[in-house]
Amino acid sequence: MSTPTVHLISHPLVQHKLTLMRQKDLSTSSFRRLLHEISMLMAYEVTRDMPTQLIEIETPLEKMQSPVIEGRKTVFVVVMRAGAGFLDGMLEVVPGARVGHVGLYRDPKTLTAVEYYFKMPNNMQERDAIVLDPMLATGNSAVAAVDRLKETQPKSIRFVSLLAAPEGLKTFHAHHPDVPVYTACIDRQLNDHGYIVPGLGDAGDRIYGTK
Ligand code: URA
Prior knowledge:
The chain is an alpha/beta fold. It is about 30% helix and about 30% strand.
C-alpha cells in the first residue's frame, strides 16, 4: 500500500496571499484575485514533476531537441462550486489542459457529499488528473470526488486544496492513500459545522459574493 503524501506549499508568496485571503473584511474581488494568483503559484508546485517530451525546434542558430510539457494529457477536475475559483490560474500555467467537473453539495445535516453533476473529457486512461477544491474540510466530498474520478481510470491523480483540516486529511488518506495532496496550510481543526478553523470561511461564498 502506498504511503500517503502531503506536499505543504510553504512558498512565502503563497503564505502571504493566504493571510490576506483569510481576513474577514476582504472584498469579493480581492479574494477572487488572490485565489487566482495563488492557484498560479500552486500550479507551479503541483506540476513540478510533470512528464515532458522532447520535440525538435530550430533556434536562430541551429536545430535542437528541447522539452515541452504534454499539456493536453492533463485534466483539471473542478469540484464545484468553489473549485472553479482555482481553475483559471491553473489554466494560465497549463493552457493545453482539459477540464472535468464534479458537482457535489454537502448535506448540511449529515455533512456527507451528494453528487449532482459529473462530466470528464474522453480518453481519461491517458490523462493525469489534478483535482481542484480549495477546502479539504471533512474530506467527504474529496473522497466522493476521487471515488468517482477513479471509475474513469486516469493515469494519475493529485488533489490540490488551499487549506486542509487534519480530520479531512486523515479521512481522505484512509480512502485514497495513493493520491498525494498539495495544500498551502493545514489548519487547527474542524468546528461543529464542518468548517475549517481558523480557516477563511465559506470559500464558495467568498469567491462569488453569495453570503
Ligand atoms: N468549505 C468551505 O468553504 N469552508 C470550510 O471551512 C469548510 C468547507
